[in-house]
Amino acid sequence: MKTTILINCPDQSGIISSVTGFIHKKGGNIIYIDQHVDKEAGVFFMRLESDFEKNIPAVKNLKQEFENELAQPYQMEWSLHLGSVKPKMALFVSKYNHCLYDLLSRYNIGELEVEIPFILSNHSDLEYVANQFEIPFFHVPVTKSTKDEAENRQLELLKEYQIDFIVLARYMQIVTSKVIDNYPNKIINIHHSFLPAFAGAKPYHAAFERGVKIIGATSHYVTEELDAGPIIEQDVTTVTHAHSIKDFITKGRDLEKIVLSRAVKLHINRKTMVYNNKTVIFS
Amino acid sequence: MKTTILINCPDQSGIISSVTGFIHKKGGNIIYIDQHVDKEAGVFFMRLESDFEKNIPAVKNLKQEFENELAQPYQMEWSLHLGSVKPKMALFVSKYNHCLYDLLSRYNIGELEVEIPFILSNHSDLEYVANQFEIPFFHVPVTKSTKDEAENRQLELLKEYQIDFIVLARYMQIVTSKVIDNYPNKIINIHHSFLPAFAGAKPYHAAFERGVKIIGATSHYVTEELDAGPIIEQDVTTVTHAHSIKDFITKGRDLEKIVLSRAVKLHINRKTMVYNNKTVIFS
Amino acid sequence: MKTTILINCPDQSGIISSVTGFIHKKGGNIIYIDQHVDKEAGVFFMRLESDFEKNIPAVKNLKQEFENELAQPYQMEWSLHLGSVKPKMALFVSKYNHCLYDLLSRYNIGELEVEIPFILSNHSDLEYVANQFEIPFFHVPVTKSTKDEAENRQLELLKEYQIDFIVLARYMQIVTSKVIDNYPNKIINIHHSFLPAFAGAKPYHAAFERGVKIIGATSHYVTEELDAGPIIEQDVTTVTHAHSIKDFITKGRDLEKIVLSRAVKLHINRKTMVYNNKTVIFS
Amino acid sequence: MKTTILINCPDQSGIISSVTGFIHKKGGNIIYIDQHVDKEAGVFFMRLESDFEKNIPAVKNLKQEFENELAQPYQMEWSLHLGSVKPKMALFVSKYNHCLYDLLSRYNIGELEVEIPFILSNHSDLEYVANQFEIPFFHVPVTKSTKDEAENRQLELLKEYQIDFIVLARYMQIVTSKVIDNYPNKIINIHHSFLPAFAGAKPYHAAFERGVKIIGATSHYVTEELDAGPIIEQDVTTVTHAHSIKDFITKGRDLEKIVLSRAVKLHINRKTMVYNNKTVIFS
After folding, report:
1. What is the mean pLDDT of residues C110-131?
2. Is A181 a catalytic residue?
3. Which residues form a coiled coil (chains A, B, C, D) (predicted)?
4. In chain A, is it the N or the C terminus that has fewer CB atoms within a 10 Å radius of its CB?
5. Which of C164, C227, C235, C254 is catalytic?
């Protein structure tokens, strides 16, 4: 049984040998270990993939022993994930279909180890895509006056379908703290600029106006401050004076879908940890 | 004789055929033509490389005829550059030597078609590099109280040596309008960030703080507003959570020197035009 | 009416002014001109986008006049394409769906100015994708003994649907000269390596074996020699020792679909010309 | 005292916990751990950076204990490197100066933690660069008839100056097994193509001929088979039909110097291990 453990705790000598010794003692074979120390903050991060021969019932004991022998003495925040459990991902979209198609075609060939219980949108334009892939679609319109009500409906659906994390695949609405607080570091957005440049609305227009020679896309966890959450993944492409804003948008679509998909895969594979509004991305 | 003509004027039908017809009539063979229309501004840009068999005395006539037959009817701003004339480039540096070495080693093997009459610095640290390459070095210290005097000295030297353009190869001083106004779109800076992100001081520290996954460098013409001039060239490189600020600085040096050198070569080869605080970069 | 003219001919002085003069005289406004001279071969290439106010009936005259006044004196090979005519593209696939989904989702949002009369495959696996997008699907199985017959069937369909060009979107069969000869420089393939490295079968396995640090994808026109036709577009991504062959394949899919789509768009927009087994790609 | 340990051995369960337990027991604080398993070959690789408070005399004991307690039971090949010892690097060059200047300017600002006892060349053209940086220069001409003698002289110098590794900074001579056998995986070459494409002479000419859209550079350890040794680092840049072979060469110089410098830094920082003609590059 493949198991992934994520740990962060105050840095001190001996953590690695203690943790690896524990895994070995419990009959686990360490497949991959990656660790990082934030020297300024004095914080230690670790991701461990192990293979245990034991059966699932033993996991509960393992967790308790880990808690007693390691987590408490080292003041760890930690989590253990079984390879056999697929996280549940909700997709929020508006009218653009490129990120949605990209994610669904990956899902379709088994590239993403998730379940997708539903797709939600404030418009009905993309219902046909949901139908193409036979995934339930919920149309939850949002207007200024109904925003609160709409978010209540979103929370209901998220709860009902036991959603683990949300992907905003070009969902053109601001998500408020009402939803964010229920999914801290569990909402992944794609912003169509090389953040922190051009945060907010119409980044391609702003990039065009400034005359940049490179445009980008940024996937990040959503926090209350707009486009200011922990960055998961970024990529860029070159542009020239000959490109119009429309060209920026077209070239940008390719960036957006690739960058968002990479971020989603990192999240699914438990390769991200968040600290101080920054991410540790394990290899 | 190789000749490069740069033109910008209000866009209208027939410019290209008029200009190419003129060149052909005067015995020139067009080697390369590149053109751009800024549709929003309604401005036409063109760069023409031609080969004339005529002798230099005829250039004067050619210019007069171009002025009468084309420039005036089409309201052109234009310039004609002879391939035989090398522009004179002054290098301003402070204490970092990577951009300086990179430019001088290119100059040394004939990659840059310029003369370098002198290197100027507010410190004497890099005098040894100037000596290695046997280029005159002027130490012009700058303090708050002597800034005005220092810029006077700079202008004297620039005039005395008939400098055509200035490269700030990590010159860590703000250049004021006193100098800029004498060299409009003739001062090339390298900023160690992906502008417009992280303008101003300590961009690597700011990038580290924000947790970006990509850092960049930007070469631009210097205008009065700090780090806001027309962008000539940009490039980026990936970073991870594992990189310290010191790593950013080290990786950034490679970006800075390559991006600055590319921008300098574009300028030398008359491949840049500036309009509305943006550049047209000809291919 | 937007019109694109492609020209190649022996290089000589005066072509550009003759052509641009002709366009101007006929009432056309040149929107974009791009030209290239292959100095070794002494061949001139040009792409001209013009806007004519005239009606379609006049196109016939225009073509005749161009032929008489320009094409014959300059020994041009040339073609004229009206912006109003969408080329017809056939898609050939096997079992992988990533390139197919990518192209169809672009088609779906109007990014590709083509018609797609049908999708053809040697397997029936991807019929469901054709159905999702409501495009006719033909299953034409290929075995060693039926290859000839299968290609006859392909040619029939290509002729019946008046196909202009074919895209091999991971079609895992070798196309013979029987088909190629009918579509010279009109069959676009995507090869999953950075050609000319790793031509032929299983390029990711070969790249893994060699221990490269970068993998690539190459889109090219199909010629009789396998993976040796004129290259249209290439791109690469980094890999490390930690990536397995399976990782190469997964990372490679993103390259393949983006590179193929770029090549298809260049072809659709008449931005490619082939000469001496190489391409000129207009900007 | 900073210490780096490199290990490779047959893969088996428990290695990581044994090694990290050993380091901890001996009073070392693990700063960084990176590990890799080549699953096909069944080989385990590890790089450990540790900080020991102990004095240098204790290192000898440490090594003996590591040998007894870990290396023998696990059949490890291993090495221990003290951060205080700078390796000695010899530079071999011919006539091109760009890689040489790039390495020396990095050395000059302390970016490379090495000593450079000498520069050697088969020509005297670059003696002036050695003089600029006040590094001994040896001119060892090589002709067909004197190659053997020249390599004897090289080996003498390498031995006399206790050289740890050699960098071929565009040294345009084939190095024979006579030298290679004395420096296995200790000779770093830069080849000006994206290997395995265009191995051997004149790769830019071959790339131009093939019409590629991307060119590359590859740094690798030298083995007897030409340009076929373990790849350390690669990078690429785009080219177009408009670039001449001369342009390829100019653009390539920037690639060559950056790629070679990265490879040299990886080697100096003990981040490379070689196995089965491939490299493991630690992060």
Report:
1. 97
2. no
3. none
4. C
5. C227
D73 DSSP assignment: H
Of D210, D216, D231, the CB nearest to C211: D231
Taking the CA of residue D147 and the nearest CA in chain A, the distance in Å comes to 46
Nearest by CB to residue C17, choosing from B13, B24, B35, is B24
Q: Which of the residues B227, B235, B247, B254 is marked catalytic?
A: B227
pLDDT-derived band at A95, boundaries 50, 70, 90: very high
Cβ of D108 within 8 Å of Cβ of B102? The answer is no
D100 and D226 belong to one structural domain: yes
C175 and C50 together in one domain: no
Return the residue in D96, D100, D109, D235 with the most chain B beta carbons within 10 A, the one to mutate for interface testing: D109
Query: Is the pLDDT score of B3 beyond 60?
Result: yes
A203 prior amide bond cis, ω within 30: no
- Is D69 within 8 Å of chain A by CB? no
A125 has a chain C CB within 8 A of its CB: no
Q: CA quadruple C205, C207, C210, C211: dihedral positive or negative?
A: negative
D12/D104 same-domain check: no
pLDDT computed for residue D55 by the predictor: 59
Range of the domain at C139: 89-281
Number of domains in chain C: 2
C59 and C111 share a domain? no
Using the 3D structure, point to which of B39, B64, B82 is the last residue of a domain: B82
Closest CB to D14: pick one of A24, A31, A35.
A24
Asked whether residue B38 falls in the same domain as residue B172, the answer is no
What are the tens digits of pLDDT across the range B94-111?
A: 999 999 999 999 999 999
Touching subunits of D (3+ CB pairs, under 8 Å) are: A, B, C
Is there a single domain that holds both residue B172 and residue B257?
A: yes
Question: B34: which chain C residues are within 8 Å (Cβ-Cβ)?
Answer: 34
Domain harbouring D218, CATH code = 3.40.50.170
Chain A: residue whose CA lies nearest to D31: A37
User: Taking a contact as any Cβ pair under 8 Å apart, which residues of chain D between 240 and 279 contact chain C?
Assistant: 240-242, 244, 277-279
Helix (H, G, I), strand (E, B) or coil at B95: coil
Q: Which of B50, B65, B82 is a domain's end point?
A: B82
Q: What is the pLDDT of residues C234-261, one digit of tens each?
A: 999 999 999 999 999 999 999 999 999 9
Contacts of C281 in chain B (CB under 8 A): none
B28 → chain C, closest CA residue: C13
Query: Does one domain contain both A44 and A165?
Result: no
The residue of chain D with its CA nearest to that of B99 is D105
Question: How many residue contacts between B and D have a Cβ separation below 8 Å?
Answer: 41
Q: Are residues D157 and D204 in the same domain?
A: yes
CATH number of the domain to which A41 belongs:
3.30.70.260
Where residue B84 falls among pLDDT bands split at 50, 70, 90? confident
Q: Which of A11, A148, A227, A247 is catalytic?
A: A227
Q: Does B234 touch chain A (CB under 8 A)?
A: yes
Mean per-residue pLDDT, B149-153: 97
Question: How would you write chain A as a 3-class SS string?
Answer: CEEEEEEEEECCCCHHHHHHHHHHHCCEEEEEEEEEEECCCCEEEEEEEEEECCCCHHHHHHHHHHHHHHHHHHCCEEEEEECCCCCEEEEEECCCCHHHHHHHHHHHCCCCCCECCCEEECCCCCHHHHHHCCCCEEECCCCCCCHHHHHHHHHHHHHHCCCCEEEECCCCCCCCHHHHCCCCCCEEEEECCCCCCCCCCCHHHHHHHHCCCEEEEEEEECCCCCCCCCEEEEEEEECCCCCCHHHHHHHHHHHHHHHHHHHHHHHHCCCEEEECCEEEECC
Task: Assess B214–C contact: CB distance below 8 Å, yes or no.
Answer: no
Sign of the CA dihedral A157, A159, A163, A167?
positive
